[in-house]
């Protein structure tokens, strides 16, 4: 550590599916925040930590999307996201490569006008453009609607220009101490990441209407004595009896698929063998219950 060491908090905002979690995972070099092509994949506030021993430490706060709430879980998610804007040192706003500024973006611009935090605009998914010159147009469009500290085109998926994003963040971070030791990459307890990985595999395996209504609880997670092996019992909670049947599948095939895919990634995360047992339970309307939301680990 030098006396020029910088540190601070950065939040990623942007509409669902724009690539926030993908970018964060890429920057950190490990999968902490789950990703999927379904909106509202990220529910909790997850911190991940990027440490460069010479330059500083960046603490990323991945937030749920800023959108209009439909139920208590939705309200909770919006509050977490909007609260964060004032608390952080830098805001990274990710947008799609397009010159159409929709209602969602307008909503974010209005929110940004109420804060003083510097905003770096990342125009993501650069890799999807056939004509890269289009990017200049998009930059121009966005330049006109808000006074951004910086605008960067990037591809979170391919890692294009992501090192530039890191450089620019350091430019705006204040001088400060290391908040976490240099080996720490997340504040998430392992159990929480395990639950999220299972939820991700369920989101991938199931069709449209079910995913928003599921949560995962870890009922037991124990390492076997003297062995690199964990026994994990987890429950997928859904809102309807009919959903339970779908999640289990014909002769348990769906649940087995979710379990196999999740186990593979959990073994990678824990660097150990995993014996994963999955159950499915119905809890009607859990998304409208404060108690249940807290109980599933969605904390402020
Ligand atoms: P979030 O909802 O903003 O956190 O978005 P995710 O990180 O979950 O990503 C949503 C989808 O967009 C996933 O299928 C990603 O693989 C995809 N995606 C993210 N970044 C890029 C990118 O730079 N290029 C392309 N082609 N796809 C991306
Ligand atoms: K998503
Ligand atoms: Mg996400």
From TrEMBL:
<dbReference type="GO" id="GO:0070181">
    <property type="term" value="F:small ribosomal subunit rRNA binding"/>
</dbReference>
<keyword id="KW-0690">Ribosome biogenesis</keyword>
<keyword id="KW-0694">RNA-binding</keyword>
<dbReference type="InterPro" id="IPR004044">
    <property type="entry name" value="KH_dom_type_2"/>
</dbReference>
<feature type="region of interest" description="G3">
    <location>
        <begin position="62"/>
        <end position="65"/>
    </location>
</feature>
<feature type="region of interest" description="G4">
    <location>
        <begin position="124"/>
        <end position="127"/>
    </location>
</feature>
<dbReference type="GO" id="GO:0005886">
    <property type="term" value="C:plasma membrane"/>
</dbReference>
<dbReference type="InterPro" id="IPR030388">
    <property type="entry name" value="G_ERA_dom"/>
</dbReference>
<dbReference type="GO" id="GO:0005525">
    <property type="term" value="F:GTP binding"/>
</dbReference>
<dbReference type="Pfam" id="PF07650">
    <property type="entry name" value="KH_2"/>
</dbReference>
<dbReference type="InterPro" id="IPR005662">
    <property type="entry name" value="GTPase_Era-like"/>
</dbReference>
<keyword id="KW-1003">Cell membrane</keyword>
<dbReference type="GO" id="GO:0005829">
    <property type="term" value="C:cytosol"/>
</dbReference>
<feature type="binding site">
    <location>
        <begin position="14"/>
        <end position="21"/>
    </location>
    <ligand>
        <name>GTP</name>
    </ligand>
</feature>
<keyword id="KW-0699">rRNA-binding</keyword>
<dbReference type="InterPro" id="IPR015946">
    <property type="entry name" value="KH_dom-like_a/b"/>
</dbReference>
<feature type="binding site">
    <location>
        <begin position="124"/>
        <end position="127"/>
    </location>
    <ligand>
        <name>GTP</name>
    </ligand>
</feature>
<keyword id="KW-0342">GTP-binding</keyword>
<comment type="subunit">
    <text>Monomer.</text>
</comment>
<keyword id="KW-0963">Cytoplasm</keyword>
<feature type="region of interest" description="G2">
    <location>
        <begin position="40"/>
        <end position="44"/>
    </location>
</feature>
<comment type="similarity">
    <text>Belongs to the TRAFAC class TrmE-Era-EngA-EngB-Septin-like GTPase superfamily. Era GTPase family.</text>
</comment>
<dbReference type="InterPro" id="IPR027417">
    <property type="entry name" value="P-loop_NTPase"/>
</dbReference>
<dbReference type="InterPro" id="IPR005225">
    <property type="entry name" value="Small_GTP-bd"/>
</dbReference>
<dbReference type="InterPro" id="IPR006073">
    <property type="entry name" value="GTP-bd"/>
</dbReference>
<feature type="region of interest" description="G5">
    <location>
        <begin position="154"/>
        <end position="156"/>
    </location>
</feature>
<dbReference type="GO" id="GO:0000028">
    <property type="term" value="P:ribosomal small subunit assembly"/>
</dbReference>
<dbReference type="Pfam" id="PF01926">
    <property type="entry name" value="MMR_HSR1"/>
</dbReference>
<feature type="domain" description="Era-type G">
    <location>
        <begin position="6"/>
        <end position="175"/>
    </location>
</feature>
<keyword id="KW-0547">Nucleotide-binding</keyword>
<feature type="region of interest" description="G1">
    <location>
        <begin position="14"/>
        <end position="21"/>
    </location>
</feature>
<feature type="domain" description="KH type-2">
    <location>
        <begin position="206"/>
        <end position="284"/>
    </location>
</feature>
<comment type="function">
    <text>An essential GTPase that binds both GDP and GTP, with rapid nucleotide exchange. Plays a role in 16S rRNA processing and 30S ribosomal subunit biogenesis and possibly also in cell cycle regulation and energy metabolism.</text>
</comment>
<dbReference type="GO" id="GO:0003924">
    <property type="term" value="F:GTPase activity"/>
</dbReference>
<keyword id="KW-0472">Membrane</keyword>
<protein>
    <recommendedName>
        <fullName>GTPase Era</fullName>
    </recommendedName>
</protein>
<dbReference type="GO" id="GO:0043024">
    <property type="term" value="F:ribosomal small subunit binding"/>
</dbReference>
<dbReference type="InterPro" id="IPR009019">
    <property type="entry name" value="KH_sf_prok-type"/>
</dbReference>
<feature type="binding site">
    <location>
        <begin position="62"/>
        <end position="66"/>
    </location>
    <ligand>
        <name>GTP</name>
    </ligand>
</feature>
